[in-house]
Amino acid sequence: MTSSFLHPSLILIAGALLLPFIQGPLRRPYLFLVPLLALGAVLANTTLTGNFGLVDFLDWQLVFGRVDKLSTVFALIMALMAVIGTLYGLHVDRAGEHMAAWFYAAGSLGVIYCGDYVSLFFFWEMMAFASVFLVWFRRGPNSLAVGYRYLLIHTIGGIILLAGILLRYQSTGSITFDLLDVAHPGLATWLIMIGFGLNAAMVPLHSWLPEAYSEASFNGAVFLCAFTTKTAVYTLARACAGMDVLVVLGVIMALYGVIYAVMENDIRKLLAWSIVSQVGYMIAGIGIGTDMAINGAVAHAVVHILYKSLLFMGTGAVLYMTGKTKFTELGGLYAKMPATFFFTLIGCLSISAAPFFAAYASKSMIITAGFEQHLNWAAWLLMFGATGTFMYNGLKLPYFLFFGSNRCSKATWDKAADPTWNMLVAMTLGATLCVLVGTAPGFLYALLPHAVDYTPHTVYHLMETLQLLGFAALAFFLLKKYVEPVDRVCLDIDWLYRQAGRGFLWLVRHPLQWFDTAWGEAYRVVGLGSLMTVSRFWSWFDWHGIDGVVDGIARGVRALGGKVRVLQSGQIQVTLFYVSSLAAVVLVTFVVSQLL
Amino acid sequence: MTTLIAYLQARLKTVVTICLALLAVIAATSLLIDTHHAHTWAEQHVPFFWSLFGFVAAALIIGAARWFGGSGIQAPTDVYDRTLLPCEEEE
Prior knowledge:
The structure holds two protein chains of two kinds. Chain A is mainly α. In chain A, 72% of the residues lie in helices and 3% in strands. Chain A has a two-stranded antiparallel sheet with strand order 1-2. In chain A, helix 6 (143-172) packs across helix 8 (208-215), helix 10 (245-263) packs parallel to helix 15 and helix 11 packs antiparallel against helix 15. Chain B has a domain at 49-91. Helix content of chain B is 73%, strand content 2%. Chain B has helices at 2-10, 12-30, 41-45, 49-73, 79-82, 86-89, and one strand spanning 74-75. At the A-B interface, helix 10, helix 13, helix 14, helix 15 and helix 19 of A face helix 1, helix 2, helix 4 and strand 1 of B. Strand 3 of chain A pairs antiparallel with strand 1 (74-75) of chain B, so a sheet runs across the interface.
């Protein structure tokens, strides 16, 4: 590594490996210190520009530290998120959970700083394999199965990405992680885009997200909501900016997530659907590809991490304190969890792009970029989706969770209270940043990859937003009986692949099993029977034919030996008699033959 | 804060009236705003455009979600157990 560049992933990985050895009163300061050091390293790296951490490996030069505006802004928010997330779960004693979270954050920072596809793939897989533990550590009845499905989908995505990388290397001889030829995308470009897109939860490759994030541990979800999808957004912004199809996919994501979030009964699954929808805005911005659109996508990724983690912290507090996550088992909690309600409300206003809250500074940038590129259909549909975002996240979530009918059981109600101090401090930090970014977005705009010629604080934007939100709220309260949560699950595209998996199992267990049994029986009757007959013949032939000849000779020799043995009486005079007689016979025979 | 919320809840009718009055003020104010920087014709020429857009969009989304859920997408919570194939039920 070049001395001036310090890789934050190294700090997190080393910190994670040492963590099990740090026990007792030192544990909590250590937990806070390690991500803080990683954030410090990222801050120190902001003064640099260029490629660092160059390592020769086989025929390639790996780049572990590409520092530019795009990588810097993403690295900053990811490192900050590692601090907030760790602070939120500071009281969690299980070292493994913190280790998984830090390896996960290290993978994300590794992807963000890398400049080649080989190291990207390494860190990409590190993210997948570390993050699954955040699902497994929930230790719920479904956690194991959900985790395996999550891992399976990400492994498939990794293979698609690897195939794209290899094809690209074969055709160009380059492993540089840079803008692809999006104007004339070949198979390699498509595969790389799909590999990235799966992690961004592009519809229809999104089903892993609502399932896994709603099943994760209360603090694991805070990490999950930030890293995977936004790292994928970074990679798409780096490699696929201006790829037209992303506009279509982004708009579909924005609307698809809205409809499912409106139907959802689980508070954290609602937020997970919201991620699909909000990442859709970023993907659409990347697809539009202009400077303003890319700025908007990046800014929205940053603020999304802030408000979404705040929302997952709020709902995580509800889960942590009550053990419940369904609207139909909760309600009226503002009286028992006032601080949690307050912070969650700030998150709700932030995601709704309410004036002076986080997304007010970012979402309109993407939509404005759409209008400026004359992609009016996309811009209108994104506005339509923005209304839906306010509906499910700005109204449905706080209303049915903290107000509405109180559906809590007595045990749930008794347990409900604001969480521990560290969780409240983490939420305070997140909420403060949400308001800061919304009111004074200048410091965020200064970090964006392109020069910003945009201000959200215009009278027109303010009035547009107030009308939109105000009248959407009116519609919500007039029609709220139609969005009343019901204890149902929403079938998604995962239903198709679950059925496909079950169909495959059925195929294996029924037709293939039958064929295997029938084949075994046929082999037993036809193959084995005839083989046994042939074997018996050869056994008979061996016994009576070959062995008969061999044994016959042996028996002849033995009989001759017996006769000879009779002659061998052991008495010398008898032996002399036989010898003399034989000699006499031989002599007489010789004489007679001479005379004749 | 809980006291304030309880206070407002006790005077819900007044709160609703104030909110409706605020909406009316917002809608009326929108007529006074300079719209020549707006991107589309509709924004520039349709009065109360964003008020209508917000209301209609919210109503459409509620209707779409309701229809989508009712068409079989919202299923009983044990749907994945009940749709198991016979071979899995045997286990």
